Structures are given as C-alpha cells and as structure tokens.
C-alpha cells in the first residue's frame, strides 16, 4: 500500500516548473481590467448645452 505521507516528503518540483513560474511572475502582463481602466481614463463626458 502507498504511504502518501512518505511520498509527499520525497516530492520535489522539477526545475522546468520553477523556471516557468519565474518567467510568468516576472512579466508585466496587461489584462482586460488594465485595458478598461486606460479606456475609461481617456473618456470625457460630452458637455451639455
């Protein structure tokens, strides 16, 4: 029978996963919220009159 506690103690992430995590976390990615904020900042309400 598998002893999950022992197996978890032996577990190590692969180096590729660490490299991918670093690459993802260190990038400045623009998401839809950033785009919407930039669009709204440039929006001006028309002057009524």
Strand content: under 5%
Helix content: 55-70%
Element-level helix/strand string: HHH
Structural class: mainly alpha
Please report the number of helical segments.
3
What does the radius of gyration come to? 24 Å
Number of strands: 0
Multimerization state: single chain
Cα end-to-end separation: 81 Å
Biggest pleated sheet: none
- The chain-level mean pLDDT equals 81
Q: So what's the overall shape?
A: rod-shaped
Which stretches are low in confidence, meaning pLDDT under 50 for 5 or more residues running?
none
Question: Top keywords for this entry?
Answer:
mainly alpha, 3 helices, single chain, 49 residues
Brief summary:
This protein is an all-alpha fold. The chain is 57% helix and 0% strand.
Characterise this structure:
There is one protein chain. This protein is mainly α and 49 residues long. The chain has a domain of 31 residues. Helix content is 57%, strand content 0%. It has three helices and no strands. The mean pLDDT is 81.
